[in-house]
Write a structure and sequence with these properties.
Layout (H helix, E strand, L loop, with lengths): L1 E7 L1 H4 L6 H12 L3 E8 L3 H14 L2 E5 L10 H8 L4 E3 L1 H13 L14 E3 L3 E3 L8 E6 L2 E6 L3 H19 L5 E10 L3 H4 L9 E7 L2 E10 L7 H14 L1
Helix pairs in contact: 3-4
Length: about 240
């Protein structure tokens, strides 16, 4: 399954905060066999966000968004996904009750009127419960595409993913295999030398340089049954041969 991750927020484009969500999502998705092919960051602008979502629908099977589910006027991700999916929303009383309970646990008498916005769920969507914040995640299928909307704060995003999203993805998509990779960090070696190394025709390789060292990464996709067999041995043999 081809995946595109869309992170939203003008603060990301301004470089005000580090985008750790995309790193966490990419690592986990690849480790369980989903092909993350695109990363896109877009600001809180309705027109540009709609363009990004429509582009993602053309090139990915699963579109995962991060951010834009808060109570403010600038939080527009859910509304823009509803726009491209041609659906409306309704007030989900269970979600509203969980938001109210969250504020009571925090010692706040009741949520503000703005928080009611977070309890609206697109028609046809499933709620991914958020136990550490007020914005629930959402799972929405439309025309064979899967939209997964996640909250922006990293602690909330990881809570929703670990408890809700990863089990659901593995249950929904059972025949996707796993992606294995190995990276070697080599000192005093030029990139030109590493470009001649070949492993197998079905193994993706890349070379990247940093200060004082060069890294060579190899990755391949296999089934769960093959995880402990040929592919693992091939990557291990490759790493040993480089060091000889």
């Amino acid at each position: 399954m081809k995946v595109e991750i869309i992170t939203t927020g003008t603060e990301l484009l301004l470089g005000e905060i580090l985008n750790t969500n995309v790193q966490y999502l990419s690592r986990k998705l690849n480790s369980i066999g989903f092909d993350v092919l695109y990363h896109t960051t877009v600001g809180d602008n309705p027109e540009r966000m709609q363009q990004v979502l429509e582009q993602a629908m053309e090139r990915a099977d699963i579109i995962i968004t991060s951010g834009g589910l808060g109570p403010t006027r600038g939080d527009i991700t859910k509304e823009m996904v509803m726009e491209v999916c041609h659906t409306e929303s309704y007030l989900d009383l269970d979600t509203w009750g969980r938001i109210d309970e969250y504020f009571r646990r925090k010692g706040i008498c009741q949520p503000s009127e703005n928080n009611e916005k977070q309890a609206y769920v697109p028609i046809g969507a499933e709620v991914l419960q958020n136990d550490v914040g007020t914005a629930p995640g959402l799972w929405l299928e439309y025309n064979g595409k899967f939209f997964i909307l996640l909250p922006g704060p990293p602690a909330e995003l990881m809570d929703v993913c670990e408890k809700q999203l990863w089990p659901r993805l593995l249950q929904r998509f059972t025949d996707h295999g796993v992606i294995m990779s190995r990276t070697l960090h080599l000192l005093h070696m030029q990139q030109l030398f590493l470009r001649h190394i070949r492993i197998a025709h079905d193994t993706a390789q890349q070379i990247f340089a940093a200060a004082g060292n060069v890294s060579h990464q190899a990755a391949c996709q296999t089934t769960a049954a093959g995880f402990g067999k040929g592919n693992r041995l091939a990557l291990s043999a490759w790493s040993i041969s480089l060091w000889r």
